[in-house]
Amino acid sequence: MIDGWYLCYYWKLDYIYDVGYDTQFPIAAVRVLNDYYKFDTLFIRAYLQVSGRNYIYFRGSAAISYKGVSVGYSVDIYTITLREQKVYLNLQADLEYPSRPVVLAAGFYGDYALARYKEVERSLRCPFGCETSYTADVYMVRPIFQSDGTIKQFVDADYTPSDEYGPSRFFITANRYWNYLTARDDYFLYLDSIYIKNSVNGVDIFLVGIAWPFKTPIPIDTSLTVGVGQVQQTEALAAALAILREVYRRTNDVEGRYYMPNAEFRVGGYDTRISSLLVDVYTVPQR
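RE: above sequence
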């Protein structure tokens, strides 16, 4: 306030689309459908550690509109920073000779909210607050911490990989609403968080994006994601691997699709893309 004049803006909650508690959020997940019988092993890993000043960030995102028209995406709206030096999450799992279609996922438990906010101006002109016509759809996730300060973690093999429950929900969101990139290799395919970040020209603080858990369609911006990463990434915090059975190695290659939102997100004055490590793997004829 200067010489009797003041002006401020803030966001107020307008509508809650969805909330969830104690929900599984996959950092790394691999799904195999019709070609399951051709795979020898599926493997996933997720690892979060703070060392020195290389903190871990969980950043929510917002899709901002003015009078119903999109004006951009931001990840500067909600951040959880982990600073205590420790291993917060450390898990890996493999599944040999899958017997039917499956999602193998590793990640953490958390609470989430999908909501719409409206911007409000407070000034001498609007002493009780006036809406500015700006709105923001927001997706936020808060990890659940255990008594020792580590994050509550999970590994799950979901044998109903196309339903609206468990890790499969995140693949539904990615399949329906996001873009994808493909990677291909001979008899095995390995993808990690550093590779996918580089493939979309991303940044370390958003190494892995987490889709929102699908439910019956809700009128929210479908590009929203939560980014997990560090200031500087010296090793992968997530990885996924699929290996063919020996009998198929002479005739098939492994191809994988990994998914990313259809948007660039503004952070600190520049735009970046964020990819997930949700990977659909399948076989193609060998080149």
